[in-house]
Amino acid sequence: MSIEQQLRDKLQDCAEAMENPSDMQKRIQEASYERYRNEKNNETSKSNLNIRMVACVLAVVLLAPIIIYTGPTVAAQIRTLLNLSGTEDARNFVTKDADSDYVITNLYADEISGNKTAQEVLARIYSGFPETKNFDIANAQITKGIRAGEKIHIFNIILMEKGKTFAEPHQEIVVNADVDTGQIHFVQTIGLEPYAAHAAKLQKSEAIAIANAFLKQLDVPIDGYEAEMTGAHGDEAQGIGQPIVTYKRAEDGKKLFQVNLQDGGMSVAFSPSEKS
Amino acid sequence: MKDINIEHWIERMKEGDSSAFQVIYDWSFPEIYRSVVFLMTEKNEIEDVMNEIYFQLWRSIGNYDANRPFRFWMHGIVLKQIQKWRTKSWRRFRIFEKKRLLEREEHLFSDRRILEAETHQEMLTMVHQLSYKLRAVIILRYYHEYTFDEIAELLDIPVGTVKSRHHAALGKLRELSPYLESAKEQELYVH
């Protein structure tokens, strides 16, 4: 008998002679399944968090004109809204009420690469914040339909530092843009320069300088606009202690966009008449 | 390992049917366990590695390509996790500790409860005296009956390397074993 055949026979005999460790089998089954279920639940929670975040960002965008007048920062709105229970973890989800009927669709990677607006938005993000080229797309969605009586078709994307989760400190950028026109409605950054570590302590000139730098990185022209700060050292009731820099057109004083400075992050919301 | 309609149970598992986990687990456990016992020399670590294998198996099962044999895919996970454990283990121990561990490898499986017969114990001890690289080729070739091409894919190494390891392993086994008959050189390359 050849050595090969002997090996086959003996290994087979040896395997069959092994006792099946029933205790270990039970322990491993329970442990591995429980670990898997936990991870699955965490993923679902994270996914739901993403969906809620984008949905909330959308809500904030729609509320942007209101926010400009009522004061609280966009980030504060997002964080507050995140605490609300949200939508389902699904490819599409539909919202219908008296004056709204819209669908939010989670995008696949190939849909992002094949979408002109998505590519324009990504190019703009990468140009302004080159470090984001290494980020992962944590979430991308398109929302289409009628909301609050207004026709919308919006692309939302969240880029997040590679290997991080929403639950831990991380760098992130969120952008909302009109799918049809490519105009940006809203941008929020977390942990990306420029930002202030202690926004509430900023002097007016410092806050405006940081807001200007942020807009410059986003390639938003600010010539012909007057910057005005509220919040930390302005109207406390409006800014919950953190500075808001509003940009008004010099010629008629119309508010066109608003930069919110938070600790470790920035955001800008464009008024409906002046999407970037 | 009896054949079952694994695709059916995988589909049910993806739908959240916990009984499907049970079926897949009971079906696969004996073979995975035996493979790990053959491939690993540290008995005390087997449970941890088995845990990791099954965790990875559950989380990856959605990506399993039904056009390929499930056993092949499953063995890929087994080998990857053992390799991962070996890498971790190497980092964990300083060189002299590793050396000490290797020196006592052959005694770790002296626990007779794991095997029913002394001859089987001898076979296992002999296989464990091969280095991991040689051992993996022997187990995949003669226990799992994979071809050299399949072994190369599983181990992610060139086929030529598989053949040379196979050749070296048989040579070593001949040295170690008084009862394995020598074979002709041309018999070493069985395809």
UniProtKB/TrEMBL annotation, chain B:
One MF term in the entry's GO annotations: DNA binding
InterPro entries per the UniProt record, alphabetical: RNA_pol_sigma-70-like, RNA_pol_sigma-70_dom, RNA_pol_sigma70_r2, RNA_pol_sigma70_r4, RNA_pol_sigma_r2, RNA_pol_sigma_r3/r4-like, WH-like_DNA-bd_sf
SUPFAM superfamilies linked to this entry: Sigma2 domain of RNA polymerase sigma factors (SSF88946), Sigma3 and sigma4 domains of RNA polymerase sigma factors (SSF88659)
Domain RNA polymerase sigma-70 region: 33-91, 129-175
CDD domains in alphabetical order: Sigma70_r4
Keyword Ligase annotated: no
Keyword DNA-binding: yes
Keywords from the UniProt entry: DNA-binding, Sigma factor, Transcription, Transcription regulation
Pfam families hit by this protein: Sigma70_r2 (PF04542), Sigma70_r4 (PF04545)
Gene3D superfamilies per UniProt: 1.10.1740.10, Winged helix-like DNA-binding domain superfamily/Winged helix DNA-binding domain (1.10.10.10)
Any Gene Ontology biological process: DNA-templated transcription initiation
Sequence similarity: Belongs to the sigma-70 factor family. ECF subfamily.
NCBIfam families recorded: PRK12543.1 (NF009195), sigma70-ECF (TIGR02937)
Protein name per the record: RNA polymerase sigma factor
Native source species: Paenibacillus alvei TS-15
Classification lineage: Bacteria, Bacillati, Bacillota, Bacilli, Bacillales
